[in-house]
């Protein structure tokens, strides 16, 4: 294989690895957001407060009265159902688990790419010596 071919393959593998690392970063961010949500749900379930600060958007909040602790949860396809905080926490925990599994799969892909890179370097070294 020509030197340029090795460089092209190395470059493509590096690009693929970088894309996967970006995806892992986004997954980590989503997991962190879900963990915060889970803590908020647990706090809501245990609170005796009748009033909370509810987010309006971009760091803006308003006071809201808690009339009931049931939440309206989008379960997909724009279907919204009422759930208790504990049930909602379980949904969030499942989402975290799914993201962790996806992250594990992506980490395996990066490991596979690393092995391919090492193999390519060894192969290029052998050809250079020949």
Give an account of the 3D structure.
This protein is of the alpha+beta class. The chain has one domain (3-129): Helix Hairpins (Orthogonal Bundle). It has helices spanning 3-46, 85-129, and strands at 51-57, 60-65, 71-74, 80-83. Strands 1-2 form a two-stranded antiparallel ribbon. The chain is rod-shaped, with a radius of gyration of 24 Å. The termini are close together.
Task: Produce the secondary structure layout.
Elements: H1 3-46, E1 51-57, E2 60-65, E3 71-74, E4 80-83, H2 85-129
Antiparallel strand pairs: 1-2, 3-4
Helix pairs in contact: 1-2
Q: What does the radius of gyration come to?
A: 24 Å
The SSE order reads: HEEEEH
The shape is: rod-shaped
- Percentage beta strand: 15-25%
* Low-pLDDT windows of residues: none
CATH architecture type: Orthogonal Bundle
Helix percentage: 55-70%
- The neighbouring-strand order within the major sheet is 1-2
CATH topology: Helix Hairpins
Tell me how many strands there are. Answer: 4
What is the overall pLDDT average? 92
Outline:
This protein is an alpha+beta fold and 130 residues long. The protein has two helices and four strands, in the order αββββα. 68% of the residues lie in helices and 16% in strands.
């Amino acid at each position: 294989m020509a030197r340029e071919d090795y460089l092209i393959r190395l470059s493509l593998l590096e690009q693929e690895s970088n894309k996967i690392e970006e995806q892992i970063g986004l997954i980590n961010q989503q997991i962190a957001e879900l963990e915060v949500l889970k803590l908020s749900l647990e706090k809501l379930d245990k609170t005796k407060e009748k009033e909370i600060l509810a987010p309006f958007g971009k760091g803006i909040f308003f006071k809201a009265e808690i009339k009931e602790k049931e939440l309206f949860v989008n379960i997909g396809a724009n279907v919204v159902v009422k759930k208790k905080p504990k049930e909602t926490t379980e949904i969030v925990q499942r989402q975290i688990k799914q993201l962790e599994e996806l992250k594990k799969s992506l980490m395996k892909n990066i490991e596979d790419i690393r092995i391919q890179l090492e193999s390519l370097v060894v192969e290029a070294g052998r050809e250079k010596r020949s």
